[in-house]
Structure formats: C-alpha cells, structure tokens
Amino acid sequence: MNYRHAFHAGNFADVFKHAILARILAYLMRKDAPLRYLDTHAGVGRYDLAGDEAMRTGEWRDGIARVMKAERSPEIAALLAPWLKTLGPGDEEGKPESYTGSPALAQAMLRKQDRLTLCELHPVDIEKLRLAMGRDHRMKTLAIDGYIALNAFVPPAERRGLVFVDPPFEAVDEFDRLGKAFASAYAKWPTGVYALWHPVKDAHIVNDFYRGLAEVCDGKLLRLELAVAAPSPDGRLVANGLAIINPPFMLAQEARVLLPWLGKVLANGPGAGVRIEQGPL
Ligand SMILES: C[S@@+](CC[C@H](N)C(=O)[O-])C[C@H]1O[C@@H](n2cnc3c(N)ncnc32)[C@H](O)[C@@H]1O
Q1: What number does CATH give the domain 5-278?
Q2: Atom 3 in ligand 1: which residue has the minimum CA distance?
Q3: pLDDT tens, residue by residue, 159-213
Q4: Closest atom of ligand 1 to CA, residue 122
Q5: Quick check: pTM over 0.85?
Q6: Measured between alpha carbons, how far is 215 from 101 in angstroms, rounded to an integer?
Q7: CA dihedral of residues 55, 10, 129, 247 (deg, nearest 10)
Q8: Which of 25, 41, 48 to mutate to test the pocket of ligand 1 (most atoms within 8 A of CB)?
C-alpha cells in the first residue's frame, strides 16, 4: 500500500468526485428518513494543502484552486453550494484552509439522524482519519479492507443510503476486484445507491467494466466521466469517472449542467471533455 492521497488531495479527480458526491448526498437528504454513508476507502478525511505532500505535487492548483477562482452562473453556484460550503473560502491562490476529503464532506453535510461508516486499511492513515474526524456519535471508523466492508455492511439498518468506493487503483486487478465486490454487495442490497470511482486510461478496460456493471444492475446505471486531457493507457492520470448505480433522480440532469462547466474550468489540453451516459450502456 504505497498510495498516499495527501499528494493528490484537491486535484481534478477529487474535485470531480466530491462535487458529484455532494449532489448525491443532497438528494438523499431531501427525505427525513435516516441514511447510511459507507465510505470503503476513506483516506485521512481532511487534507492540508499547504502541507509537504500537497505542496510537493501542487496538483490542487489545477483542481480546487481553479474551481474556487472560476466565475459561476447562479445555476452552477447553486449546484456546487453544498460541497463548497464544506470547504469554506479559498485564499488568494484559491486554497481553502483545508481540503475536505470524502469522509469530512459527508460528516459536514449529513444530519443528526444519519450514520457514517468509514473504512481505511492503511495503518497510519486510519489514525490520521480518526484524529481529523474527531468524536462523532454518528460515525464508526474501521481499520478494515474496504472490499470486505462493502460486503459485510450492506444492507445497512437504515435501508437507504450511499456506498462510496474510491480505491487507489495501485493493483492491476483493481477494476476486476471492484466489479466483483460491487456485484456481491448489490446482490445483498439492490436498492442502495453506489458510486464507484475509477481512472480512465484504457477505454477498452473501462468499457468492459461498465458492461459488467450494467449486467449486474440491469442497466440502472449512470456513467460520468471527466478528462482534463486525452488519456492514454500508459500515461499519467488525466481522466476519471464515477459509475453510479441506482442514480438519484435528477443527477443526470444536474451532471449535464455541472460537468461541462467543470470540464472547461479544469481542462489542461486537447482531449479534455466530459461524458454522461445513462441506462443500459
Ligand atoms: C483515493 S484514496 C481515498 C480518498 C477519499 N475517498 C476521499 O475522497 O477523500 C484511497 C484510500 O484507500 C486506502 N486503501 C487502499 N486499499 C484499501 C483497502 N483494500 N481497503 C480500504 N482502504 C484501502 C488508501 O490507503 C487510501 O487512503
């Protein structure tokens, strides 16, 4: 386990995944009934963008800093508001005081009746996560393999909620593992909302992944992708996606507004763009 998210916090991929994550949570909170948020690969929760790791790569400069400084129409501002509220204002460089990872984002947005289950396998990062998240009676933090948790903790007692799966993709078989873990969780809890993050490098691999997902969930699927430049199989990460199973009503429509804007703000070269596809792919 070499991957440390602190080097990448607030980059274009984080911005994309967290903007969508916040839209899903906002939708689920329209009902008063309690919900569960299961984060299988939680990271450390909150990131200091002035810290050594983030400063060494500076990836946040082409991510959250651009978003903070960009012009927003009232429609875009409204769609981003729940997420940006969790970040607070940016400084003159567009750097927030700290960058909220997925656990801190969910912690800030969720209500007293909701519950959070956060899993992180790295022995150092789980302790950092616990420190960053503080005491919160709604929350459990577990030093456990996220794929095992995915199977063990569904369906949650609340019977509604979101499973967010955000693996590091260090292993060559990560797509395979992710697809299989999702299939077995879905068999136990077919009505949950699942958001699965993935890199986009080799289009064939990604297309196969979606074909597998679509088969499992009978096409109840939304495919969202954002590329800041043209991806290539052996190149660095410039494109990524979220596969959303049982997508909330309105999410595709919101994505059609939000993603083209984000795509433009984050673009870094030829090949930048977004993809939004719904249904049996
Ligand atoms: C991309 S980061 C997560 C970022 C976080 N979801 C966010 O949005 O702020 C992936 C995390 O998964 C952790 N990890 C790697 N393999 C894992 C596993 N099998 N189970 C749980 N966590 C794992 C890594 O240590 C890393 O902190």
Answers
A1: 3.40.50.150
A2: 43
A3: 999 999 999 999 999 999 999 999 999 999 999 999 999 999 999 999 999 999 9
A4: 25
A5: yes
A6: 31
A7: -170
A8: 41
